[in-house]
Amino acid sequence: MNFDEIIERRNTNSMKWDHLKAVYQDADLWPMWVADMDFRAPESVLNALDDVTRHGIFGYHHPPHSLRIAIQDWTSRRFGWDVQPENMTFTPGVVPAIHHLINVYSNEGDGIIIQTPVYHPFFALLRSNQRALLENRLLQREDGKYDIDFDDLESQMKKGAKILILCSPHNPVGRVWSESELSKIAELCARYEVTVISDEIHADLVLQGNHTPFAKLEAAKDLQVATCMAPSKTFNLAALQLSYVIFNDKDMQKKFEQQMKQNFMGIGNPYSSAAAEAAYRHGEAWLEALLTYIQGNVDYVQERLQQEMPSIHAAKPEATYLMWLDFRELELTQDDLQNWLRNEGRIALNDGHTFGKAGSGFARMNVAAPREHVVEGMNRLKTAYDKMKNI
Ligand SMILES: Cc1ncc(COP(=O)(O)O)c(C=O)c1O
């Protein structure tokens, strides 16, 4: 594994590299947006995919039991969480899974809590399902990190919330919620009978601390919890579209599977199953090396900001390869900030505003790329910064 290797992604139909014009109206920006990585997947995954290709038959597929066992081993080894193979349901992505979970656990008009600023499709999921948005804004500390506003969370629950969509670890603020924070959430959910959809897609990408699966908590054992996980972020397999939901309630799982069937949702393909199983069985050393590399990129970005661009701030993420950059000291409107990043910085970052109003003045930077790419992005940002400050 050589994370410094530059692998050309232009002209490969990559969302991050080849879809810039459609989103930013400019194809030449330096892409640090879409949450995937510019690294090749582990060798074991590539070999498993080669085997599928060489077999050469791509008929209807059913994910094998051995994949369930590989997931069971992984969650047990990585998180000390014992899950049963039959409690997992495969889905073609976490976002589609959440869409169907919302439909199983709630009705039109019901309130759903999300903790903002947060992964932007959560808003779209509520909108397209005509659910009422109950916004629990996270509180930013002096050091730039975020905490949960528990008083507000409780008041959102009092409004009759049916579901809390937890983002754990949290995208974009990078928090790894502690066991005590999660237990406090669980106690409130128990008191107000709120079901939890726990999006744990970033669970493997922890840089500091340990990830605690919400459903593993003692305080969550009487709650309805659907845990969404995937190898997609961890091993850079997003395009293979495999994820899974772990249920702690058999009836809910049954309803969910019925809902999937009624909506003609597919059950996967031999590439995604083979890649996921190889990654979970043989990808752990690769993952550890990846995390060290990402931490190096995070440190690099933070150091350059502190030394060369002191008006831009970023707390180190405890998890994910996404950095939440705070530009508020530049005193630009959100539109001006986006225009400045594009026109002067020539970089594509995710607009903070799409993560909710609480994201105004922020932008999200993806650092899962060879160091040279991150250096290029930071050089561009520095050029724009110096020009603005007349340095
Ligand atoms: C919190 C979170 N959930 C879900 C997803 C996307 O999941 P999928 O591609 O499996 O739909 C992302 C991708 O960035 C994410 O950050």
UniProtKB/TrEMBL annotation:
Signal peptide: none annotated. Its EC number is 4.4.1.13. It holds the Pfam family Aminotran_1_2. InterPro entries: Aminotransferase_I/II_large (IPR004839), C-S_lyase_PatB-like (IPR027619), Class-II_PLP-Dep_Aminotrans (IPR051798), PyrdxlP-dep_Trfase (IPR015424), PyrdxlP-dep_Trfase_major (IPR015421), PyrdxlP-dep_Trfase_small (IPR015422). CDD domains: AAT_like (cd00609). Its cofactor is pyridoxal 5'-phosphate. Keywords: Aminotransferase, Lyase, Pyridoxal phosphate, Transferase. Residues 41-372 form the Aminotransferase class I/classII large domain. One of its GO terms (molecular function) is transaminase activity. NCBIfam families: C_S_lyase_PatB (TIGR04350). Belongs to the class-II pyridoxal-phosphate-dependent aminotransferase family. MalY/PatB cystathionine beta-lyase subfamily. This is cysteine-S-conjugate beta-lyase. It comes from Salicibibacter halophilus. The lineage of its organism: Bacteria, Bacillati, Bacillota, Bacilli, Bacillales.
